[in-house]
């Protein structure tokens, strides 16, 4: 029988790093499945073998502790093997999402000072040129074009204070900032997770988050440390709630994470009475609804900044009708403390609103190469009794509930949480203001849940009339997709408070009169195009859409894309994939795809009818 716990000869409490636990599982359960994506699967033995080879090659290049190594791959078996090999070399990995703009990837690589970047054959084309070597892996994590280095693998001793990974988040200065997390903090997260969710080697966990989202850290290491298996869905499944539900059921997933907006959609679906799924973890945004009592699994809401090693608080969400309207963010996890303080760093009374500070084992080292910003956000912990501990100022407003849980109330600053991403509006404004037509700008979020979207307000150079697609393309050259606003509203001037500060609350609602559009707009030329354009305009909350306007340039994203495909299926009776929208993002091209699908269905029915007549004859 497989053991769910680490080797009793080396208790979990005495383990120095997550790498120790993963290597132990590879020794105990070499043939067990470690990670699977479709038909591609790696056993623990195969995963360890790939990690050893990567580590040996990095070691031969002089890569060791405190060196950051880029990992430019999507969430996949190759990503897991690459991160494991970097750990074995004693180095730290820097997740780099290959779908992000090359200019942003170059900024991350330079700021992290990576000497080398691991990539697959497919993702290596996304790696920007620079003073770093690129090491190519196959999709299964096997190195390509490098010599075997048998016996050259380093014996990594990962002290808890050694750097484990660097994840970049949005920065208010206009540049992303790299959060440095040490192995001790990562191990604390894994220890808590194994205990809180009773993880065993029999568990089957999902890996949905993108590689640059810190939730991916949480989705990988606890399960590999327990000898469980990781399962990676394809791109279409991970953003479409009904498709994801079907995949979770087919793959017999027992523990899954989904960003808040997607989790809320999953909670609304009908589920079979008996399912393998026992825990649905969520986080990244404010959870607005509670699960139905009939759901066959537990829903757990989680909160935590990247600077707190993914998760700082966690709590099971009670069903409808059993508590307050909005679920809390739970209570602190093992090894973490939370303080609710006023502007003078004094405790506020229970129930009163204050700013949340997190302390303890989860607090990150700080920001890479940013001592000024680190000193501003990572403060001495006054409750540590002079032990030198630090606390992180989250910028989130909360209140302590009577039962020890914490209620989230919003931001103390302008930072925005959107589809699991922390976004600094000033970073968007800094990029937007570089457009020659833009004088000033402000960015806010409007709407709730899956409807929540970024709206940019711009004052323009006299006579300039940039279109929405033009501004989006300008931003998309340097910013990732979640940071590109859906709408651009023209204002004569940004409203100010009596103190001369920008009054974001006074910004007008978007309307057909003030929203920048792309003109001239080509009108639909067929009934199918008219219907597709109508559906698209309704989803994007715009008055009209031209037949050659790009869905994604108009503010569309993957979650809206899944809704778009569902509406098209209902309207035309055709089965389109989300991939079709990515490949044919205009009304004109998408309508042509629909017409082809309709004709194919008619031909198939005709062939079927004809075969039946011939058989009867």
Short description:
It is built from 15 helices and 26 strands.
Gyration radius, rounded: 25 Å
| Mean pLDDT reading | 87
> What kind of oligomer do you see?
single chain
User: How large is the share of residues in beta strands?
Assistant: 15-25%
CATH topology-level fold name of the domain at 28-158? Rossmann fold
What's the shape? globular
Terminus-to-terminus distance: 61 Å
User: Main β-sheet, in a few words?
Assistant: 5 strands, mixed
Assign the structural class, choosing from mainly alpha, mainly beta, alpha/beta, alpha+beta, or little secondary structure.
Answer: alpha/beta
Q: How many helical elements?
A: 15
| CATH class (first level) name of the domain at 28-158 | Alpha Beta
Helix content: 25-40%
Q: How many E-type strands?
A: 26
Based on the coordinates given, report the CATH architecture of the domain at 28-158.
3-Layer(aba) Sandwich
> Looking across the biggest beta sheet, what order are the strands in?
11-12-13-14-15
3D structure, described in words:
With 617 residues, the chain is α/β, with parallel strands linked by helices. Helix content is 30%, strand content 21%. A hairpin with a 5-residue loop joins β20 and β21 (406-411). The model is unreliable at 1-11 and 612-617 (pLDDT under 50).
Topology, element by element:
Layout: H1 18-28, E1 33-37, E2 40-43, H2 44-60, E3 68-72, H3 77-88, E4 92-95, H4 102-112, E5 116-120, E6 133-137, E7 163-169, E8 177-182, H5 183-196, E9 204-206, H6 215-226, E10 229-231, H7 241-250, E11 255-259, H8 260-268, E12 279-283, E13 298-303, E14 313-316, E15 331-332, E16 336-341, E17 354-360, E18 366-367, H9 371-377, E19 378-380, E20 390-400, E21 406-411, E22 416-418, E23 421-423, H10 425-432, E24 438-446, E25 453-460, H11 468-476, E26 487-490, H12 527-540, H13 558-572, H14 578-583, H15 587-616
Parallel strand pairs: 1-10, 3-4, 3-5, 5-6, 9-10, 11-12, 12-13, 25-26
Antiparallel strand pairs: 1-2, 7-8, 8-18, 13-14, 14-15, 16-17, 17-20, 19-20, 20-21, 22-23, 24-25
């Amino acid at each position: 029988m497989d053991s769910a716990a680490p080797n009793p000869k080396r208790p979990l409490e005495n383990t120095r790093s997550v790498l120790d636990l993963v290597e132990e599982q590879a020794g105990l359960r070499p043939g067990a499945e470690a990670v699977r994506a479709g038909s591609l699967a790696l056993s623990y033995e195969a995963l360890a073998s790939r990690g050893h080879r990567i580590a040996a090659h990095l070691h031969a290049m002089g890569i060791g502790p405190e060196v950051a190594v880029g990992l430019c791959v999507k969430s996949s078996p190759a990503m897991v093997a690459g991160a494991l090999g970097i750990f074995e070399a004693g180095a730290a990995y820097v997740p780099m999402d290959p779908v992000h703009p090359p200019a942003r990837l170059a900024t991350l690589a330079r700021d992290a000072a990576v000497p080398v970047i691991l990539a697959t054959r497919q993702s290596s084309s996304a790696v920007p040129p620079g003073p770093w070597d690129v090491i190519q892996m196959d999709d299964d994590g096997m190195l390509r074009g490098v010599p075997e280095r048998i016996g050259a693998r380093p014996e990594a001793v990962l002290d808890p204070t050694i750097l484990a990974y660097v994840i970049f988040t949005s920065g208010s200065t206009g540049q992303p900032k790299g959060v440095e997390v040490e192995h001790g903090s990562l191990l604390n997260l894994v220890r808590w997770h194994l205990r809180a969710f009773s993880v065993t080697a029999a568990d089957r966990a999902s890996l949905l988050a993108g590689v640059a989202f810190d939730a991916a850290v949480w989705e990988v290491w606890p399960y590999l440390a327990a000898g469980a298996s990781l399962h990676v869905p394809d791109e279409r499944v991970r953003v479409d709630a009904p498709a994801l539900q079907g995949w979770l059921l087919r793959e017999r997933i027992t523990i899954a994470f989904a960003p808040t907006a997607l989790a809320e959609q999953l909670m609304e679906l009908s589920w079979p009475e008996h399912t393998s799924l026992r825990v649905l973890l969520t986080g990244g945004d404010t959870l607005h609804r509670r699960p139905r009592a009939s759901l066959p699994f537990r829903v757990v809401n989680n909160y935590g900044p990247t600077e707190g090693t993914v998760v700082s608080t966690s709590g099971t969400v009670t069903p409808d009708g059993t508590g307050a309207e909005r679920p809390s963010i739970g209570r602190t996890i093992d090894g973490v403390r939370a303080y609710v303080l006023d502007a003078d760093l004094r405790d506020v009374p229970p129930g009163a609103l204050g700013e949340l500070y997190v302390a303890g084992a989860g607090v990150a080292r700080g920001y890479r190469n940013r001592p000024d910003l680190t000193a501003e956000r990572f403060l001495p912990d006054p409750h540590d009794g002079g032990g030198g501990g630090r606390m992180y100022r989250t910028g989130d407003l909360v209140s302590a509930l009577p039962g020890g849980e914490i209620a989230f109330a919003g931001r103390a600053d302008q930072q925005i949480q959107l589809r699991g991403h922390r976004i600094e509006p000033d970073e968007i404004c800094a990029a937007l203001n570089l457009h020659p037509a833009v004088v000033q700008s402000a960015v806010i979020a409007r709407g709730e849940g899956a409807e929540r979207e970024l709206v940019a307000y711009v004052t323009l150079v006299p006579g300039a009339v940039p279109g929405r697609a033009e501004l989006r393309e300008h931003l998309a050259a340097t910013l990732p997709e979640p940071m590109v606003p859906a709408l651009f509203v023209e204002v004569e001037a940004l409203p100010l408070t009596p103190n001369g500060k920008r009054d974001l609350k006074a910004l007008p609602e978007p309307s057909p009169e003030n929203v920048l559009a792309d003109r001239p707009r080509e009108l639909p030329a067929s009934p199918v195009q008219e219907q597709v354009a109508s559906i698209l305009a309704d989803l994007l909350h715009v008055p009209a859409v031209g037949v050659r306007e790009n869905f994604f340039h108009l503010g569309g994203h993957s979650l809206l894309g899944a809704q778009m495909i569902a509406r098209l299926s209902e309207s035309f009776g055709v089965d389109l994939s989300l991939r079709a929208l990515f490949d044919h993002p205009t009304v004109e091209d998408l309508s042509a795809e629909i017409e082809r699908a309709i004709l194919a269905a008619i031909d198939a029915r005709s062939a079927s009818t004809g075969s039946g007549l011939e058989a009867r004859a």
